[in-house]
Write a structure and sequence with these properties.
The chain is an alpha/beta fold. Helices cover about 35% and strands about 20% of the residues. It has one domain: Rossmann fold (3-Layer(aba) Sandwich). It has a seven-stranded mixed sheet, sandwiched between helices. Strands 2-3-4-11 form a four-stranded antiparallel sheet, with no helix packed on it. The chain binds zinc ion. Zinc ion binds next to loops.
């Protein structure tokens, strides 16, 4: 039985499909084969879809050498510890989290908070979620637990879901409630979470519509869905074609544009939907440049990566929709008297207030 069927029309908007990048190889994790994608012909959607039939066993085999097992890092000494505290000061100033830091961390946090890149870096660690005392969050595809570690540090009650058995046991060893399996299969109770978040997961999911519908079901009224994912409409995606790092064949099954991601969220029942480009996709830009030159992608660290991060940060300011990474921030339900939490979150979130809607 197929887990993912070759699409006959766009799974987001139903429009017919045209050719996308063809004959793409997996230069990142070395899965063999040449892979084709198709593109939705609707100019207002433009999603990219993998054009192959796949069984669950085949999909599982694509992850044999996929590495998400490095332990999470919460720096406890030196400059990196100061930086960690400074970003917590930004959580305090921009997203309402206690406590305020003291001394150098507060000063550094205030200074870094003036720079959009560092505001995004701080906010992304908490998936742009404003403070909600006692709030519960589910992270889907938590990998090495780094995201859950930041969320727990900020006071969230964190649960996670993952396919990978090694990730599950590492998360449990760190004291997290971790469930193994497919999020869309109904693992969590209806209305049991204040937030559902995922970083670079939705593009791996065979049925992203079912994934979003399940997120809507498990959220309480006023709750938030936050998803980070590559942007199929980015400048790099357009110029790199088959060499774009965001394709990541054959693990990425559906690669969204801002428009297709927003449409999918609205279709799942989310009322307030925003998509913005983040300045955090420098690694995609760097590795796309290497792939364009026929090189194997190099690790994202050091001076070279810093330059790409700076370029991406500039792009986020001057041409937000052309960033290599986008984030969807969607709320369940309108801000009514029955959903005061949602009303508060929307009203008090500077990140939402700052967000410029994309077309
Ligand atoms: Zn479409």
């Amino acid at each position: 039985m197929l887990a993912y069927a070759k699409p006959t029309c766009c799974i987001v908007c139903g429009t017919s499909l045209g050719p996308g990048p063809r004959g793409v190889e997996d230069k990142v994790y070395g899965v063999s084969g040449h892979w084709n994608l198709v593109r939705c012909q609707n100019a207002d959607c433009g999603a990219l879809l993998l054009d192959h039939d796949l069984t669950a066993a085949e999909i599982a085999s694509f992850y044999a050498s996929y590495s998400t097992h490095a332990p999470p890092v919460l720096a406890a000494t030196g400059v990196k510890y100061l930086y960690r505290l400074a970003l917590q000061q930004i959580w305090h100033d921009r997203l309402g989290y206690p406590p305020e830091q003291a001394g150098p961390a507060r000063i550094l946090g205030r200074l870094l908070g003036l720079v959009p890149y560092f505001r995004a870096e701080a906010a992304s660690r908490l998936f742009w979620l404003p403070h909600k005392p006692g709030g519960t969050v589910i992270e889907i595809g938590f990998g090495n637990s780094q995201g859950m570690a930041f969320l727990r540090e900020a006071g969230w009650q964190v649960r996670g879901v993952e396919f990978d058995a090694v990730c599950i046991s590492s998360a449990k060893a760190l004291g997290f409630e971790a469930v193994q399996g497919d999020f869309a299969s109904g693992l969590f109770d209806e209305g049991s979470a204040d937030a559902v978040v995922a970083s670079h997961a939705i593009e791996h999911v065979p049925d992203p519509g079912a994934f979003m519908a399940e997120a809507h079901r498990v959220l309480r009224p006023g709750g938030y869905l936050v998803l980070r994912t590559p942007n199929a409409a980015s400048r790099d995606a357009r110029r790199s074609g088959a060499a774009w790092r965001g394709l990541e064949v054959p693990r990425h099954l559906t690669i969204h544009t801002p428009a297709s991601l927003a449409a999918l969220a609205r279709h799942a029942g989310f009322d307030s939907v925003k998509v913005l480009g983040t300045p955090l996709g420098g690694f995609i830009a760097q590795q796309s440049a290497e792939l364009r030159q026929g090189q194997k992608p190099s690790p994202v660290q050091g001076r070279k990566t810093l330059l790409y991060n700076l370029a991406e940060a500039l792009r986020a300011v001057v041409s937000n929709g052309s960033c290599d990474e986008i984030v969807l921030i969607a709320a369940k339900g309108k801000c009514t008297a029955t959903a005061p939490a949602g009303q508060t979150m929307l009203a008090t979130s500077p990140q939402l207030a700052e967000a410029r809607p994309l077309r």
